[in-house]
C-alpha cells in the first residue's frame, strides 16, 4: 500500500473518532449532572435505569459483534458500511438526552423513562459504529508502527473532538443557558454525522481483497459448519471459547477497572469540583477551562507520547508505570489535604488525564490478541468485531457501575439532601470530606488492582507485519 494512501486511510478513519469524540465527551461530562441536578431524577429511577443500561450493554455488544463478523448482509459485514449507515442514527441518539419529553416535575417517572430509553438507544448506536471502527483499526495492518500511525491520527482527531466540552461550557455558561446548550448539541450531532460519513465513504484498503471475496469465504465456512453440525447457536459458543484465553481475561479485567476509573472521573469531576473548589478561589472562566481541559489534555498527551514513549518502551510498560504514578499522586494528595485549592485542581486534572490517556492505547493490546487468535486457528478472515464485542460484554457494565456506586456512596453522606436544598452546614462539610476521600482512595484502589491484572497479560510486543483483512 502506497504511503500517500496510508495517510489518506488514517485521516479518514480518524474522522469517526473525531465525530464520536465530539458526542461522547459531551455525553459523559453532562448526562449525570443534567439528570441529577437539572431534571431532578429520583434516585430509585436513576439506579433502575443504570441497571437496565448495564444489562442492555451485556446483550448488544456480542450480538452486534457476531452479526458484523458472520452476517451476509453488507450493512453488518462491511465495516465501513456499518459506519456509513449507522452514523446518522448515532447522531440522533445523542440528541435524545438533551430534549425533555414534557414539563418535568421533580422526581417524575417520565424523567426516569427518558433517562433509560436515551441511555439504551445511545449505547446501541455507539456500539454498532465503534465496533466497526475498532475492527477496521485491527484489520488494516498488523504492523505496530502503522497501528501507531492510525492511533496518532485518531488521537489528533480526538484532540479537536475533545474541545467540544470547553466550547459548550462557555456557550451554555455551565448549563445555565439550557437553550444555548441544546443548540450546541444539535450542531455537534450534525458535525459528528458528517465526519463519520467521510469514514464510511472514503476509507479503503487493498482492492485485491473485495467484499465479494469475503462473502465467498463466508460461504465456504457455512458449508464447513454444516458438515460438522456446528449450527448457528454452536458457532458463537465455539468462537467465545477460542477467544477466552488467559491474555484476553487479563486484558478484560484491566479494561473493566480502567473504564470504571475513567467514567468516575468523567461523570463526577464537575460535581466534586463545584463542591471542593471554592467559588472565591478561582474565577468562573478558569473553572470552565479546567473542566474543558480534562477532556482535551489526555489526547494531547497521547499524541506526544506515541512516537517517543510507546515506540521505544512499548505500551505494556507505559501502562504499568502510569498506574504506579496514579497511586503516588493520590497518596500525596490525601496527605496534603483539600485546603490547597490549586494543588487539588492540578490533582483532578492529572488523575482525569492519566485514566483517559491509558485508555486511548487499549486498541493496541486488543489488536495483538486478534492477531494471535487468527494465527492460532488459521482463520481466513479474523473475528475482529467478536473480540472487541466480547471485550465490551465484560467491560461496558463499568459505565453503569461507576455512577451507581459513587451516587450510592454520596447519598450516604447527604447528597440527595443537597439537591433539594435541605442539607445543613454540618452535613455539607461531611459531604465535602466524603468527596475528597473518594477522590483520593478511588484511584489508589483501582490502580493497585490494575497493576495486578495487567501483570498477568503476556503478549507484550506486536509480532507480525502483514495486513490481515482487506475491505474494498
TrEMBL record:
- Keyword Membrane on entry: yes
What Pfam families does this protein's entry cite? MFS_2
Q: Which domain of life is it from?
A: Eukaryota
Keywords attached to this Swiss-Prot or TrEMBL record, sorted alphabetically, are: Membrane, Transmembrane, Transmembrane helix
The transmembrane residues are 12-31, 83-101, 113-138, 150-168, 180-199, 248-270, 290-311, 318-336, 342-366, 387-414, 434-453
**InterPro entries, sorted:** MFS_trans_sf, TMEM180
Entry annotated with the keyword Hydrolase: no
Q: Which named protein is this?
A: Transmembrane protein 180
Q: What is the lineage of its organism?
A: Eukaryota, Metazoa, Echinodermata, Eleutherozoa, Echinozoa
